[in-house]
Structure formats: structure tokens, C-alpha cells
């Protein structure tokens, strides 16, 4: 029986990104050994989208109120890389990880699986 999912973010500075996820985003974690942190994520969803290009994977954080979430993250020094834009499915933005990666975050306007 499948009981979870394991998401990997590849980073040029994994240690800084781990500290960011732990200290700024506040995700609980376990140390798998030698500082290799594994984070507990909030409830998750999985979707399969069609593509004309090569298959790929994406990872988005979700929130109930994107404006207040970004304001709170900004107060903790988080850089908003992509300002909020309105999409047909929700409000989308992206924050910058210390390792240089961009992490999309959105407020859904579609039914969410966590409510099942």
C-alpha cells in the first residue's frame, strides 16, 4: 500500500535550502543522518497534465491566502521572485530559495483534494 510521497528539490546549496525549509518555512523534520533532513509536508495533491514536450515534474506549495502568506514570508526575509499573477486555477507567485531555485506557491481556486 502506498502511504506517502517523497519530493526532492535539487539545489546548488542544499544545506542553505534545508535551513530555509526548517527555519523560515517551519517544516518539521527528521535527520536521516549527518544533517540530511527529511521534512514533513502539509497534505499534498498529485495531478497529471498533458504535455507536447518532454515529461517533467513540478512542485508547488499551496496556501489559503497568498497575499498574507507572502507578506509573512517577506517579513522573514524571503524574496518573492515572481509576483502574484491570476491564473484560471488560482493565484500564483514564486519565492527564491537560498540555493538559487525558484519555488512556486499558489492559492487554489479549484476544488482541492485535501478536503476529501
Automatic annotation (TrEMBL):
Domain VOC: start-end pairs: 3-108
Keyword Oxidoreductase: yes
Matching PROSITE patterns: VOC (PS51819)
GO MF, one annotated term: dioxygenase activity
Keywords: Dioxygenase, Oxidoreductase
Family annotation (InterPro entries): Glyas_Bleomycin-R_OHBP_Dase, Glyas_Fos-R_dOase_dom, VOC_core
Protein name per UniProt: Extradiol dioxygenase
Annotated organism of origin: Actinomadura spongiicola
